[in-house]
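User: Quick one: structure for sequence A, then sequence B.

Assistant: Sequence A:
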Amino acid sequence: MSAAIHTEYLIIGQGICGTFLSYYLQKAGKEYLVIDESKPHTASKVASGVINPVTGRRIVRTWMIEEVMPFAVNVYTEIGSQYNVQLVKQCNILDFHPTAQMQLAFNERLKEESYLRLPQNQQQWNAYFNYPFSIGETNPCYLVDLRALLTVWRNQLHTNNRLIEEHFEIDALNYANRNYILYNNIKAEKIIFCDGAAGINNLFFNKLPYAQNKGEAIIARIEKLPDTNIYKQGIVLVPWEKDLFWIGSTYDWDFENINPTDAFRLKVEAQLKHWLKLDYTIMEHWASLRPANMERRPFAGLHPLYPAIGILNGMGTKGCTLGPFFANQLVNCLTQQTPIQPLADVQRFTRILSR
């Protein structure tokens, strides 16, 4: 029988939330272990990595964007400098208006929203796209290389013997003592679930207002298309690697399985035929479940009945924007007893989680 392992924090999952939670715990000088089963197509690994300050058809500001965007950009830059890899760059969105009504709506919002503007020299894009109306620009937007982030941090976890690569079995968790938990041969003061879409079925947090959301994305080779911008018209083209673009994404709330669908691929092909003047080749087609929720606000904090059990989840499509900020807030709460933003604190669900 192996000797017992003692740690302060046991983190379940190494997506965006688990990565930043362990990063800030390490900065705080805390001991931690991460349990994560390596899977190729989790939501974090196939996400576009776009930080967009405005959202939706009404082009409204993303929640808390004035705080979370500069915070995120700073920490991606910080980690990139530490590991000699570029993790974030400015990459503004060019919105090719498909109708006169959408052009008018953008122009109306342009008068009120400082993140919107008209790009210079719009005619330069005639070489790449068909567009009967004008183009709007969202500035600044940022593009995060999430795959590089997850890889460099996983390597760091391996190097420092902080990663256990296995499937987490919640039935093996012993939480009878309120002051610590036991999991196989691990004793931890706290366990924090950063388990993404799996949180929907989590024994402790499955009463939270999760909403299963399936997303699909295609990776296509489009040579000669500049990687200086993100392009949007019905679908979104995001620079991925040299000559490769991430194309997505769907927000499917009613689905039979988590497999890629012909319907999405055909939709992308039809739009590219209509919009793009360049040749393209579809290289890959992915689908994954997002940890979305009906409130569109994160879940961060400790369980009201089990103080040794916590959560950092529910980021939906905004994980690369919200994840760093709320991981830091949770670590500060755990180590310095500072409050979590009330609209993100899981204590707002005390009544439902106490049933």
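Sequence B:
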Amino acid sequence: MYKFLIIQTAFTGDVVLATAIAEKLHVHYPVAKIDFLLRKGNEGLLAGHPYISEILIWDKNNNKNRNLLRLARKVRHANYTHVVNAHRFATSGIITIFSGAPYRAGFNKNPLSFSFNHKLPHIIGLPTAQNTEHEVYRNQQLIAGITDAVPAMPALYPTASDYKHVSQYQSMPYVCIAPTSVWFTKQFAAEKWTELIDNLPDYYNLYLIGAPNDKMAVQHIIENSQRTNVVNLCGKLNFLQSAALMKGAAMNYTNDSAPLHFATAVDAPVTAVFCSTVPQFGFGPLRTNGRVVQTTEKLSCRPCGLHGHKSCPEQHFKCAYGITNEQLLWWTSKKT
């Protein structure tokens, strides 16, 4: 029997996008064992996943190197037939080398890619490109030779208990907003979120979602709003509960960040706000009910990087402040 290991130890959104690999492998190898290796903190994304047999967790924050070697030994002893490494850094390359798997696929940006017997380029689209590959398509190339060239969609599987938990918030129509990001310049300005909140139709309850450490920043957004039907849910929902809530929303607003991919993974409507980054990098919405909103002003400084910065390098943050409420409220005219 084939035994697959998918490796993606990067950020939460990267793991969500890599679930498309598991979906595709299951279609072509329905009785195969499919395992997934990720960083500690992201394992909740795959809880109860119907196609993933075992989740291997790398704790990067405690005894990082010791835990890496422990994982490498575990992977070696598991006798995987295929290791698919969607991560582009040396640590995951070490695990791939030591796996001993006959099929070792990864991107050539990985410093240890010389050890992969299926090595492919990972090309980030240029901002001026008209047609660029999404990250899901780039990942698919790692298994195209053993499946086909058409990628599956990423998928998350909230459980019945996840849906039951969020049902308490679903008695009225609602909108979800995920206003924060790890990177400041990928994050729509706080006062712009407040402005949007005050202009959304008042018959929608508004739920602002995020991690526990986002709670204060989100509370600041709410306190500057005139709305009363706004609830701060930061830290109150786990990943799959957040996805379950987003699935039932009339609209979800996100930055270029993980919640955007949550929406894709449960086929929820999403408006993705791109500030310093651009969708041509390959991380935009994938489904027809997703839309990108970005400034229409041609800024010579945009994009200022692939991942964003802790502050605007030009000190004006026009890529965020140039976005209008009219752009963000595009969908509300269809509801009247």
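The longest helix spans residues 12-28. The chain has a mean pLDDT of 96.

User: Thanks, that's what I needed.
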